[in-house]
Amino acid sequence: MRKVNGKVVLAAVDCTGHGVPGAFMSMIGNDLLNYIVNERQMTDAELILECLHQEVRNALQQPNTRRWYGCSSGGH
After folding, report:
1. Cβ(70)–Cβ(17) under 8 Å?
2. Are 29 and 56 in contact (CB under 8 A)?
3. Secondary structure of residue 21 in the 3-state scheme
4. DSSP notation for 33-59
5. Residue pLDDT tens, the chain, 76 long
6. Cα separation, 22 vs 18, whole angstroms
7. Which pTM does this prediction carry?
8. Residue 9, SS3 per DSSP
9. Residue 21: left (phi > 0), alpha (psi -120 to 50), or beta?
């Protein structure tokens, strides 16, 4: 939970997978979400999720693939 530009940003995120793959996705997702909210100052949930999706694909070097990684999230 963060306060950005007078708005409170709260997210609940769960990544699929067990062991190292799940932990890896959780670390990537957490770091990117913090970057998007704190550094880019985004507060709109739809824009945050769109940006997170693109950033995860870039981080995994899969910008145009149809592979699916697992991550469920919700924000307010």
Report:
1. yes
2. yes
3. helix
4. HHIIIIIS----HHHHHHHHHHHHHHH
5. 788 889 999 888 877 777 888 888 889 999 999 999 999 999 999 999 999 989 988 998 876 666 555 566 655 5
6. 5
7. 0.76
8. strand
9. alpha
